Structure formats: C-alpha cells, structure tokens
Amino acid sequence: MRKASFPSKTYLNELNRKQLPSNAMEKLPLLERLDFIDSGHNIILAVNPATGKTHIAVGLGLKVRFPRCINC
Question: What is the mean pLDDT of the chain?
C-alpha cells in the first residue's frame, strides 16, 4: 500500500456514483470487471476537476491488489 503512494484508501463502493458524469457512470461497471488488465490495455481518466478520477483510480488499484476485499 505504501509503495503505491495512494493519496488515501478510497474504495469503489464508497464512490457517490450519482455525482459522476454520465459517461463515467456508464463506463465504470466495465472498468470494475478489470478486463483491461488481462487484455493489456491502459485506461485514461480525463474529465473536469473534482469528478472522482482519483477515487476511481485508487478504488480500481485496491480492487486489483486486494481482490477479495469486502470494501473494494
């Protein structure tokens, strides 16, 4: 966890999805499946400030690192 230098532990289940931009709400379920990792694709989170990019990025990172985590 320290090596990743996450700014905080923010889990995907804590994300207020209603406040996300509509395109992020549509794509988040696809990202949560983590298929992009197996296929070797990168993802870019590019939207306006304060829209949940860091929360999503850290949440996905935690989900990858701790796949059985209840809070992820």
Answer: 87
Q: Decide: helix, strand or coil at residue 37.
A: helix
Judge whether residue 72 has pLDDT over 60. no
Q: Is the dihedral of CA 55, 58, 17, 42 positive or negative?
A: positive
Distance CA 59, CA 68 (A): 13
- The torsion angles phi and psi of 31, rounded to 5 degrees, stand at -65, -35
Residue length, the chain?
A: 72
Greatest alpha-carbon span in the chain: 33
Query: Is 62 buried (19+), middle (13-18) or exposed (0-12) by CB count in 10 A?
Result: buried
CA distance 65 to 59: 10
